[in-house]
């Protein structure tokens, strides 16, 4: 698209301004030219690549060169891209009306050939470029051009624009003005290149957008042809997508039903006997008219449709219905008077015409080759879909009975195979679990017994000192405690799973219990460089629950955080209150920093004797989290774990979220019946 920013005449004529120019040389030209180039570069760097950028440069150059007009014109070898022009005129010539007799461009250009149009002689190609740019840029100037100093710019060795300095009176150009053009030539070449590239990119984007719309249409039709939609539904969606994508005013999809079943490939120009049914319609403007998708007409009554058989293999394109020899033979449903422009493309398969795809416009439209090719591809897709649908209906009846029997047999085999596969997988998991259980429980039982046995042997040694004797007794006591705790944990798990006793509820201050437990564990945590950050309120957080179970849950979660936390990190403990489905709940979050938990490990991390890969070499029974889960279920709560990787680190944040009802069913402050 051609862009011109020219200054139109606005005010009465000023004859005194047409006097010959005095010779005015710019002061400090040697310093002004580089500064001018620098200012142009600044404009290029801070402006968008549009004609407005060229307008700023034209004004800047015109003022610096002290000329009447400065004209910038882009040059391109691409015929699809028109030149962009920007002109600036001095304020004293604004408003001067155009003379009745403008200068002859051809005569002026012939005179220009013998003038010094630039700082040095130019080749024939460069003079041609200057001539074309002047013909474009000077056609709307307010006064006849009397003197021009022009220079072509080059980018990448190719002419891409022309800079013209213009005087409206005879004038002899000086070396200073020529030096200005030489200095700014490279900067203006960059500006011309950016404007041309921006124009080219905009054109390509428009082309790509249209191509993407067409490709999207083909993809939609391909998906439709493979979908399980009924044929009529698929055809309706196909004509709607096609007409909307090609911006038609109306789209019709018509199928033919031949009354002569022997009719296959008719002789040339033979019109068969057939009935046409409208199976799909789309309109750009929704109207109150009744649906015509059920209307029909005979092919013999529509001369428009007969043209497909008269000229087979070619679409029917009519810009105006008056071009038809006899419009009375057009079927009324085409509304030819309101939509006179018609594109009718046959739906053809193996020489047989199945129907027509019709696109109509209220105004004349020149269909591009790419659009016609697209419609032809759509017709091919629709034709294939129609044939496939008819073939499937015919074959389906023959296949249904055999398929039903075969399907029954296959379903039985699949069920047996799937069940066998599940049994094998369960056996494999049970076997693996058994091995892990035996290995873990054996280690947990053997290790303390071994230590106790060694301590007993050492106690029997003669001459053992009281100090060593006390140390061995401490070992015996600690290892016995471990064994007792392991057995107690197993018994507690068994007791919780049997659900023999309901919870013994009492009201506690959760925040107080958390402070007490964290203080008791502080020395143990400090040995590993760990600290606890409590995010709890100073106000009491009342909780109706079983105190012993809550204490054990908090202890196990903090013990787990201590065991698997990275050294010198912080354990965060947060409490909050929430209402979920009219039920008051207390949420407790324990977050530590350590090795991440995979999705696979998270599925069994609360199982007894199941430990993550990273914890297999860490001392422990593998019962802590299993006990936590059983206690949480005992209190009608829920627990979950989430592992979030820390960016640029091999560690993760592991968060255990515990949710407990704030009040028991017997003691909650309100109910749904209140």
Characterise the protein shown here.
The chain has about 675 residues and is an alpha+beta fold. The chain is built from 13 helices and 18 strands. A six-stranded antiparallel beta sheet has the order 8-7-6-11-10-9. Strands 1-3-2-5-4 form a five-stranded mixed beta sheet. Strand 4 (about 145-155) and strand 5 (about 160-165) form a beta hairpin. Helix 1 runs antiparallel to helix 2 (about 50-65), helix 8 crosses helix 9 and helix 9 (about 465-500) packs across helix 13. The longest helix has about 90 residues, at about 370-460. The two termini are about 75 Å apart. Mean pLDDT is about 80; it is low at about 1-30, about 100-105, about 115-120 and about 665-674.
What's the arrangement of secondary structure elements?
Elements (H helix, E strand, L loop, with lengths): L2 E3 L23 H18 L4 H15 L3 E6 L9 E6 L15 H8 L11 H14 L9 E9 L2 E10 L7 H52 L4 H15 L4 E9 L15 E10 L12 E3 L4 H8 L5 E3 L22 E9 L2 E10 L7 H91 L6 H33 L7 E4 H17 L4 E5 L6 E4 L1 H18 L5 E11 L2 E12 L4 H6 L19 H11 L3 E8 L6 E10 L13
Parallel strand pairs: 1-3, 13-15
Antiparallel strand pairs: 2-3, 2-5, 4-5, 6-7, 6-11, 7-8, 9-10, 10-11, 12-14, 15-16, 16-18, 17-18
Key structural traits:
single chain, 674 residues, Beta-Lactamase, Helix Hairpins, 4 domains, six-stranded antiparallel sheet, disordered C terminus
């Amino acid at each position: 698209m051609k862009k011109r920013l020219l200054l139109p005449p606005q005010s009465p004529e000023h004859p005194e301004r047409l006097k010959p120019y005095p010779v005015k040389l710019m002061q400090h030209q040697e310093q002004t030219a580089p500064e001018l180039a620098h200012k142009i570069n600044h404009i290029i760097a801070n402006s968008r690549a549009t004609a407005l950028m060229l307008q700023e440069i034209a004004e800047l150059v015109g003022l610096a060169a002290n000329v009447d007009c400065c004209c910038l014109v882009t040059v391109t070898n691409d015929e699809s891209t028109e030149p962009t022009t920007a002109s600036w005129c001095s304020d004293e010539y604004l408003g001067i009306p155009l003379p009745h007799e403008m200068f002859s461009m051809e005569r002026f250009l012939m005179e220009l050939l013998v003038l010094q149009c630039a700082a040095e002689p130019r080749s024939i190609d460069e003079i041609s470029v200057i001539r074309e740019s002047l013909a474009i840029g000077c056609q709307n100037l307010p006064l006849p051009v009397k003197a021009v100093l022009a220079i072509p710019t080059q980018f990448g060795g190719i002419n891409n624009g022309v800079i013209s300095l213009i005087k409206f009176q005879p004038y002899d150009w000086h070396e200073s003005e020529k030096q200005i053009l030489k200095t700014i030539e490279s900067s203006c070449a960059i500006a011309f290149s950016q404007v041309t590239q921006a124009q080219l990119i905009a054109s390509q984007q428009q082309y790509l957008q249209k191509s993407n719309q067409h490709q999207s249409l083909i993809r939609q039709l391909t998906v439709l042809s493979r979908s399980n939609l009924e044929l009529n539904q698929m055809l309706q969606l196909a004509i709607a997508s096609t007409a909307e994508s090609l911006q038609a005013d109306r789209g019709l999809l018509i199928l033919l039903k031949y009354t002569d079943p022997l009719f296959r490939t008719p002789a040339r120009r033979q019109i068969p006997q057939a009935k046409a049914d409208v199976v799909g319609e789309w309109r750009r403007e929704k109207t109150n008219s009744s649906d015509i998708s059920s209307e029909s007409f005979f092919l013999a009554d529509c001369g428009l449709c007969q043209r497909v058989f008269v000229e087979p293999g070619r679409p029917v394109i009519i810009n105006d219905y008056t071009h038809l020899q006899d419009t009375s033979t057009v079927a009324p449903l085409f509304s030819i008077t309101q939509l006179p422009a018609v594109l009718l493309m046959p739906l053809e398969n193996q020489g047989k015409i199945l129907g027509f795809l019709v696109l109509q416009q209220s105004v004349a439209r020149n269909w591009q080759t790419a659009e016609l090719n697209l419609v032809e591809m759509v017709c091919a897709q629709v034709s294939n879909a129609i044939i496939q649908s008819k073939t499937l209906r015919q074959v389906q009846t023959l296949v249904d009975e055999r398929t039903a029997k075969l399907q029954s047999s296959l379903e039985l085999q699949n069920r047996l195979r799937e069940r066998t596969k599940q049994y094998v997988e369960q056996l494999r998991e049970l076997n693996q679990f058994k091995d892990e259980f035996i290995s873990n429980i054996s280690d947990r039982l053997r290790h303390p017994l071994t230590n106790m046995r060694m301590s007993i042997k050492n106690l029997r040694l003669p001459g053992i000192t009281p100090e060593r004797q006390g140390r061995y007794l401490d070992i015996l006591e600690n290892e016995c405690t471990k064994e007792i705790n392991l057995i107690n944990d197993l018994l507690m798990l068994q007791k919780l799973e049997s659900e023999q006793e309901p919870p013994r509820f009492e009201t506690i201050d959760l925040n107080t219990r958390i402070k007490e437990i964290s203080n008791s564990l502080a020395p143990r945590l400090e040995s590993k460089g760990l600290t606890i950050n409590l995010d709890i309120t100073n106000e009491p957080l009342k909780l109706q629950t079983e105190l012993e179970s809550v204490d054990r849950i908090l202890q196990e979660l903090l013990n787990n955080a201590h065991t698997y936390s990275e050294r010198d990190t912080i354990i965060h403990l947060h409490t909050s209150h929430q209402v979920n489905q009219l039920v008051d709940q207390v949420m407790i979050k324990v977050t530590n920093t350590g090795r991440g938990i995979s999705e696979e490990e998270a599925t069994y991390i609360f199982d007894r004797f199941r430990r993550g890969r990273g914890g297999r070499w860490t001392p422990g029974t593998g019962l802590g989290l299993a006990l936590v889960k059983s206690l949480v279920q005992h209190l009608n709560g829920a627990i979950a774990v989430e592992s979030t990787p820390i960016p640029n680190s091999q560690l993760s944040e592991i968060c255990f979220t515990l949710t407990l009802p704030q009040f028991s069913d017997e003691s909650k402050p309100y109910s749904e019946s209140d």
